[in-house]
C-alpha cells in the first residue's frame, strides 16, 4: 500500500546511506579482476508487450536475498501480463552502471534495480532517460526530489518488528527476550520499537533487553552482545543489524536460544536452508515482501497508474511485510500462537491496531502505544 509521508521522510535523506546495512545484504567490495555479468532471458512474449528488466545487487536470483524476491515479483508480473523479462546478475559493484546501461541500450521500458548500493546509478539513469520507468528496491528518494519515472520501494519495518516481538514473547519460557540492533537510524528504530511494543502487547510483563550497536559490519560484536543477553536470561534474540545482527543470531542459536532474523528469510540465507548449526532454533524472520512490492509496481505500470518522484511504502495492508515460515522450529509455535499472530497481522492490515511507532522516523509514539491484549496459551 502506498502512503505519503513527505514532511516526515525528508529527514531520511541525510542518513539513507546506512539503510542498506540494516538488513541481510552485505556491502561486498568489488573484485580485483573485472568480472562479467550473468544475463538470462524468459520465454518470448507478444511483440507489442512491455519489456521489463532486473539488475540485481551483488549475487544471484536464487540466493535467498532481495535479489531472489525481486526476481520472483518481476517474473510473476511478466507471466501474468505477457511481458518480456530479462535479468542481469551483478558480479561487482563497479558493474552497476554498465548493467543498467545494457538494458537502456536495448530499449527496455521498465528497469528494476536491487539494493541501496545501486541507488545512485539508478537515479542518474532515470534522470537521463525519462522515457524509461525505474523501480529501486529498498531505495529511498525524498518525495519531490527525483524524476517522475523513478520510485523507491520502502517498507513498514515497525509492523514486521511488532509481529516479531509478539512471536518472541509468546515463545519465551524465561520471560526475557532481547534485540541486537544496528545503528540508531529510522529503519532500525522502527524494528526495535515495533519489537518492544509487539512483545508487551501480548505479554505485558515481558522483560526486554536491547541495544543499538555502532556498526552494521561486526558479527563478532553482535555475537558477544547476544551472548551477554543470554547470560542475562534471554532465551529469544532478534537480530536487526546487518552482519552484526547475523552474528548475534548465529551465536545465540548455536547456544540453544531461539532467534528471529530480519529483512529476508534468514533460515534460507544465514542458516543455509537448515544446513548450518542452530538452524532448528530460528523461529522466523521479520521480512520485507520485496516480491509483492515489485509485482505491484510493475502492475501499476501496466495499468497506467504508476506514480514516481518519491517512494512507494508497503505495509501489512498490502502484504508488504510479515513473518517468514517457521521451518524447523514450527513445533515450537503452537496453533494458539499462530492464531494470535494472524489476529495481530489482520489488525495491523485493517488499521485497527497501531504499532505505536512513527512510520517515518521510527520514534516511539508514547501516546499511541496499543493497550495490551495478553496471549492466553
TrEMBL record:
Record keyword ATP-binding present: no
Claim: Transport is one of the keywords in the record: no
Superkingdom, taxonomy of origin: Bacteria
Keywords: Cell membrane, Lipoprotein, Membrane, Signal
Any matching Pfam family: Bmp
Cleaved signal peptide residues: 1-20
Subcellular localization, as worded in the UniProt entry: Cell membrane
Cited Gene3D superfamilies: 3.40.50.2300
Domain ABC transporter substrate-binding protein PnrA-like: start-end pairs: 54-338
Membrane topology: Lipid-anchor
InterPro entries documented for this protein: BMP_lipoprotein, Peripla_BP_I, PnrA-like
Family: Belongs to the BMP lipoprotein family.
Protein name: BMP family ABC transporter substrate-binding protein
Source organism of this protein record: Candidatus Chloroploca mongolica
Amino acid at each position: 500500500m502506498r502512503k505519503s509521508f513527505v514532511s516526515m521522510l525528508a529527514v531520511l535523506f541525510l542518513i539513507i546511506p546506512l539503510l542498506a546495512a540494516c538488513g541481510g545484504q552485505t556491502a561486498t567490495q568489488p573484485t580485483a579482476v573485472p568480472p562479467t555479468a550473468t544475463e538470462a532471458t524468459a520465454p518470448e512474449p507478444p511483440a507489442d508487450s512491455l519489456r521489463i528488466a532486473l539488475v540485481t545487487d551483488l549475487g544471484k536470483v536464487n540466493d535467498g536475498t532481495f535479489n531472489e524476491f525481486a526476481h520472483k515479483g518481476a517474473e510473476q508480473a511478466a507471466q501474468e501480463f505477457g511481458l518480456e523479462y530479462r535479468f542481469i546478475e551483478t558480479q561487482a559493484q563497479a558493474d552497476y552502471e554498465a548493467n543498467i546501461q545494457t538494458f537502456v541500450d536495448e530499449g527496455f521500458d521498465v528497469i528494476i534495480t536491487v539494493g541501496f548500493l545501486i541507488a545512485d546509478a539508478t537515479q542518474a539513469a532515470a534522470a537521463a532517460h525519462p522515457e524509461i520507468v525505474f523501480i529501486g528496491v529498498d531505495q529511498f528518494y525524498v518525495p519531490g526530489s527525483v524524476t517522475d519515472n523513478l520510485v523507491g520501494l520502502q517498507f513498514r519495518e515497525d509492523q514486521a518488528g511488532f509481529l516479531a516481538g509478539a512471536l518472541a514473547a509468546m515463545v519465551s519460557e524465561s520471560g526475557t527476550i532481547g534485540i541486537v540492533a544496528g545503528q540508531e537510524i529510522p529503519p532500525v528504530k522502527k524494528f526495535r520499537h515495533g519489537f518492544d511494543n509487539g512483545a508487551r502487547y501480548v505479554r505485558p510483563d515481558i522483560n526486554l533487553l536491547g541495544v543499538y550497536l555502532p556498526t552494521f559490519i561486526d558479527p563478532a560484536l553482535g555475537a558477544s552482545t547476544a551472548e551477554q543477553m543470554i547470560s542475562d536470561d534471554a532465551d529469544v534474540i532478534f537480530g536487526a543489524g546487518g552482519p552484526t545482527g547475523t552474528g548475534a543470531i548465529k551465536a545465540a542459536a548455536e547456544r540453544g536460544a531461539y532467534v528471529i532474523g530480519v529483512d529476508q528469510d534468514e533460515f534460507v540465507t544465514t542458516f543455509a536452508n537448515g544446513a548450518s548449526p542452530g538452524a532448528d532454533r530460528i523461529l522466523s524472520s521479520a521480512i520485507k515482501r520485496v516480491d509483492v512490492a515489485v509485482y505491484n509496481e510493475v502492475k501499476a505500470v501496466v495499468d497506467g497508474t504508476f506514480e514516481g518522484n518519491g517512494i512507494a511504502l508497503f505495509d501489512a495492508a498490502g502484504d508488504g511485510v510479515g513473518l517468514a515460515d517457521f521451518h524447523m522450529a514450527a513445533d515450537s509455535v503452537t496453533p494458539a500462537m499462530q492464531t494470535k499472530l494472524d489476529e495481530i497481522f489482520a489488525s495491523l492490515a485493517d488499521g485497527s491496531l497501531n504499532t505505536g511507532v512513527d512510520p517515518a522516523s521510527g520514534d516511539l509514539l508514547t501516546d499511541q502505544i496499543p493497550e495490551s491484549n495478553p496471549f492466553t496459551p
